Amino acid sequence: MTDPARGSSTFSPRTLRLLLDSRVLGIRAGDDHKFTGIWFVVVGNRLFVRPWNDKEDGWHRALLRDRRGAITIGDRQIPVRARASRGEAVFDAVDAAYASKYDTKASQKWVRGFAERRRRLTTTELLPAGGRLR
User: Fold this and answer.
1) 18 falls within a domain
2) In what order do the strands lie in the sheet with 124-128?
3) Domain limits at 17?
């Protein structure tokens, strides 16, 4: 069961369809940052992201500090909350999802890069935040 104040633990079926049909989403930490286009994957109806460059002033660190942000997918803006992911099984599933989704020859360099240990450790799950962003 989820806490209504924190939002649902899964995205709506409509949002999941949009995610499954898209290759890039926009992500923003808090309310003050701009949206950045990133690759993402859905594993078992759960949304995961990894930053390519995990800079101190980048979207990923800001999102982990704020814990709240938003994504854009299609014409929708959806409030999200971030949760750091752990465990080799999750990391392996996310690696496999990136490899399956981004399967062009031109994407392979990036897919291999996302599977490097330092990037695996940045795996972040995004969950619906519900309500307004603070």
Assistant:
1) yes
2) 36-38, 25-29, 68-73, 76-84, 124-128, 46-49, 40-43
3) 13-128
Give a yes or no: residue 24 inside a domain: yes
Q: Which stretches within the chain are classed as H helix?
A: 13-20, 59-66, 88-101, 108-114, 117-120
Q: What is the CATH number of the domain that holds 25?
A: 2.30.110.10
Report the Cα 92 to chain-centroid distance in Å.
16
Q: Is residue 89 part of a domain?
A: yes
Each residue of 7-50: pLDDT tens digit? 456 899 999 999 999 999 999 998 778 899 999 999 999 999 99
Nearest to 46 by CA among 3, 89, 4: 89
Over residues 46-103, the pLDDT tens digits come to 999 999 998 888 899 999 998 899 999 988 999 999 999 999 999 999 999 999 999 9
Non-local (6+) Cβ contacts of 108 within 8 A are none
Q: How many domains does the chain have?
A: 1
Residue pointed to by tokens 């995990």? 54
